[in-house]
Specification:
The protein has helices at 7-51, 67-71, 84-102, 109-137, 142-164, 172-184, 186-211. The protein is mainly α. GO terms for molecular function: oxidoreductase activity; quinone binding.
Length: 212
């Protein structure tokens, strides 16, 4: 004889799941729009710098907070063109995915897993750029930091959706444990911890420039 959960429990769980899927897509939408704006500003600045390397950008505040210093480093054009151009191409795709999903579209498993893999590469690239700015270039770009933060939230939002929909084909026991963790909001907490650590690292190294 098969044990069935009470109808009320199933309804409650189904309602939670629907809301749990919508939240990360809403966060994806907001994050990707912010990242698109940042990419646009950085792209315009890259064109301005190409025309006049001595131009002063709006976010050239001091030696530590200087978009111009970062933009003229080789790391800012790793593939032979400004990295910001990548954002102009990829972020509209994320916006479309988020909007369609909020409207009720469910993308195929292969598509969502592929998107997760692509954004994993984007996440690694974003943090590599942050490390280069922080450790090598010696200056930070506020718009680049916004892209890093947005990439982090989009990646974790995609991860939450893929776990909720079990697109990774996890075993029942593993999936149940992952779902339990999601219910506690551990993924959101992890993002907050990462952002706090980044902010702390920036303050420790650049406190004189920021508050002096």
């Amino acid at each position: 004889m098969t044990d069935l959960a009470p109808a009320g429990a199933l309804d409650t769980d189904s309602t939670w799941l629907r809301r749990a899927v919508r939240r990360p897509f809403a966060l994806m939408l907001a994050s990707s729009v912010l990242s698109l704006i940042a990419s646009f500003v950085l792209s315009v600045d890259a064109v301005r710098l190409a025309a006049n390397p001595d131009v002063v950008l709006t976010c050239d505040i001091n030696s530590a907070i200087s978009c111009g210093t970062v933009a003229q480093a080789w790391q800012a054009s790793l593939f032979g063109f400004p990295n910001a151009f990548l954002g102009l191409v990829t972020e509209p795709v994320v916006v479309t995915i988020a909007l369609a999903s909020l409207a009720g579209v469910r993308f195929p498993r292969w598509f969502m897993v592929t998107a997760q893999g692509v954004y994993l590469l984007g996440l690694v690239f974003a943090y590599w750029l942050f490390a280069q700015s922080y450790l090598v270039i010696g200056a930070l770009c506020p718009w680049c930091l916004l892209v890093t933060a947005s990439t982090t939230t989009v990646f974790t939002s995609l991860l939450r959706v893929n776990i909720l929909q079990n697109n990774f084909r996890l075993r029942p026991g593993t999936h149940a444990r992952a779902m339990s963790l999601l219910r506690t909001g551990v993924d959101y907490a992890a993002v907050v911890v990462v952002f706090v650590l980044l902010a702390a690292a920036i303050i420790v190294k650049y406190h004189n420039e920021l508050f002096g």
